[in-house]
Amino acid sequence: MSNFKRDGRAYSLLTKQLQERCGVMLPRTAINELSIKNVPRLVIGAPHGRSGKTTFTLGLLRAFAQQGIAVQPFKKGPDYIDASWHTAAAGCICRNLDSFFMRKQEICSSVRNQSLEKNITIIEGAMGLYDGLDLQGSSSTAEIAKVTRSPVLLVVDATRMTRSIAAMVMGYQHFDPDVQIVGVVLNKVAQARHEKMAREAIEEFCKIPVVGAIPKDVNLCIPDRHLGLVTNREMPETDKLLDYLADVISKHVDLPQVLALARSAPELPQFGETLILNLANYKPENKALTPKIGIIQDAAFSFYYPENLEALKSMGADVIPINALLDSQLPEDLDGLYIGGGFPEVFAAELEGNKLLRGEIRRAGEEGLPIYAECGGLMYLGRSILTPSRNFEMVGLLPFDTQMETKPQGHGYTIMKANSDQLWFDEETEIKGHEFHNSRLINLALDIKFGLTVKRGHGIDGLHDGISYKNVFGAYNHIHALGCPEWAERMVKLATIYNQTRRS
Q1: Is the pLDDT of residue 13 over 70?
Q2: Which residues in the chain are classed under CATH 3.40.50.300?
Q3: Which CATH class for the 39-262 domain?
Q4: Parallel/antiparallel/unpaired status of strands 439-442 and 449-456
Q5: Which residues are catalytic?
Q6: 275-503, which class in CATH?
């Protein structure tokens, strides 16, 4: 593997661990072949949310990275914020795995492709291990574990429990025989006696190892906001916090045993042709033309799936980063603009202050520039954002104002049907996505055109989503390119048409 070639210490560490666990010394080539053929991996699950999965996962990722062990992070579900923290911790782009809008072949191919040059893959779950959309547990962490045949490491909040933890873990072991729980991490352990009783009960009755016991620590947390954790871009001491988490995990968790459990994973399932392969093999219609698509990426707009940006590039686009907080103008000869989600309400004063860029975006949209905006991007394109403190002027390209609320106005998976009043999807196309917003649109123009009909979710008004104006499309709905590949193809096509029109 690439990291072993650069770091002999990491290679020696892992081979020693393998020898201790397996009783045999493997040559370097054997480790390389094993890593490629059989991805060492673990799903980090928990009995319930707030058990400490994320802080444990971040510390584990950073601890491995510090030892020169290449680790590939994944996050279960449509989560942008946790994924950004994973990326910072591991020094490697985190990917999302979601069985609601990704097929089994996309999930397994993503794990395989992203793990090729890594020594271990860590998949952090969401909510409780078996919590899903229905009685069958669809779209749960357990489903991802079963689809990828990944062993599960269970993080348990040990507060006010000792022997009872074994009964709880045993229930999780036997609830679904296709889910393999291979170890436990005890979190929020009070004292040595507490740890000893819980550890002995689990190992005696559940017959699986306790690989770590993390003590109670008020510093083992990341600040929250209404949509989840604060983004790592907003934390000036991100690396200091991640290093602290890594120190705690290195001290209280048996990392060699975690590696050994990951290497117990069977071979990944293989399926037929995937959308990942299709995107990689896409050939643009006009090979001589490379449309330029701007991506607004900054502290205010940071919610992007890497697959979405990669899909645009695979289809022939040149992706240009833009900072809505600092850049005073759009790049020259821009053929399209993509504005993702984020927290424009938090940075509303800075966005309002950049009047020059707001004016350029408004003029470009009026002149026909294809613009695709999701959630925070939709809010930015409106007339204003109304917060409890004051109102802030935004781009003013779309005829509405955004009112911030204290509770979520839309939260969860979505299913949308494309209407005829838009250019971005074929009519009647069913689009699976997700939404999570504490805002609602008010003062909408009477003649506004909606491009999507809500079949599941809330959208803008419970019935519609996707405001369509000229070549502009803004929706609360977030999509993933592997679940909606036609989106990237259509964006590149519209950008190409705009380029040709502008040149003629």
Answers
A1: no
A2: 39-262
A3: alpha beta
A4: unpaired
A5: 375
A6: alpha beta
